Amino acid sequence: MVAQARAWALRTARFFGGGVGTRPALLWLSPAWGGAANSRLSGRFRSSNVNDVLLKEKRDKIMSKGLPKQKPIEGVKQVLVVASGKGGVGKSTTAVNIALALAANDSTKAIGLLDADVYGPSIPKMMNLKGSPEVSSKNLMRPLVNYGIACMSMGFLVEETAPIVWRGLMVMSALEKLLRQVDWQQLDYLVIDMPPGTGDVQLSVSQNIPIAGAVIVSTPQDIALLDARKGAEMFRKVNVPVLGLIQNMSVFQCPHCKHETHIFGTDGVKSLAEDLGLDVLGDIPLHVNIRETSDSGKPVVVSQPESNMARAYLKLAAEIVRRLPVSPT
């Protein structure tokens, strides 16, 4: 019986990636293993503990070197990232209209828009841009421009319907090129439309370039708020200032009877902001015009500038600028 238990535990240990000495927790699997068996294994456990100490020392040595040194993007004064914990909350639509609203609020400012969502780029369609970027004499890609906004996206470099089937290292390489090998000229603000989540792209952007501020987009829905909280906490951990939260799709008004319905809940983002010690920067309604104008490549800020939806984005952009640090000259 003891021999069978021992053989089973050894097979289990190997399945989980190592000898018994690396899996001390497996001891409890067989109460029949008495003192003799434990005694024979104690030497292996001591060896494992030594390995753990060496691993910790190696990790501490790496960490002592600190995070990668941040290097500003040439020609860009301030970077604003628009992020969300969960996809489908209207982050890209918000990023596009924020960029356009920044330009509309102050025509003297030069605005850029970077689509950092390598797997699912949305900026080309929303900004009604097609084609491949030209390359300068310095071997830098020139952004495509529409509505006065300089734009760069992975969507300009691949076919519209082609999937990006890449592993992490290739994505990081592509992101590095989008950040460093683009001739942005001189920009006052570069708005980065981040992919949803808190993964490699978010960490790489946060650690490699100085970011003036981040805004988190969420609907009032509880499921979206769970991930929005994670997004805000992630930026805090990497010392990126979180300017506040944006409540998107907050209320739906019937176009016929004007009755208002809170489809995704009421003031969920406001409650989350209070928990995090942040403010709600803006409240964007759920309106068919926002969706239609984005799909047609004519965002609501430029196509319907006098509408209530456009005014909401203009007010949001002004609030963001108010909270940004003083721009370097």
From TrEMBL:
Gene (name only): NUBPL
Any one GO molecular function term: ATP-dependent FeS chaperone activity
Keywords: 4Fe-4S, ATP-binding, Iron, Iron-sulfur, Metal-binding, Mitochondrion, Nucleotide-binding, Transit peptide
Keyword Nucleotide-binding annotated: yes
Signal peptide: none
Primary location group: mitochondrion
Cellular component GO terms, alphabetical: mitochondrial matrix
Gene3D superfamilies named in the record: P-loop containing nucleotide triphosphate hydrolases
Family per similarity comment: Belongs to the Mrp/NBP35 ATP-binding proteins family.
Domain of life: Eukaryota
Name under which the protein is recorded: Iron-sulfur cluster transfer protein NUBPL
Family matches, as Pfam families: ParA
Localization: Mitochondrion
UniProt cofactor(s): [4Fe-4S] cluster
CDD domains the record matches: Mrp_NBP35
Upper lineage: Eukaryota, Metazoa, Chordata, Craniata, Vertebrata
Example GO biological process: mitochondrial respiratory chain complex I assembly
Record function comment: Iron-sulfur cluster transfer protein involved in the assembly of the mitochondrial membrane respiratory chain NADH dehydrogenase (Complex I). May deliver one or more Fe-S clusters to complex I subunits.
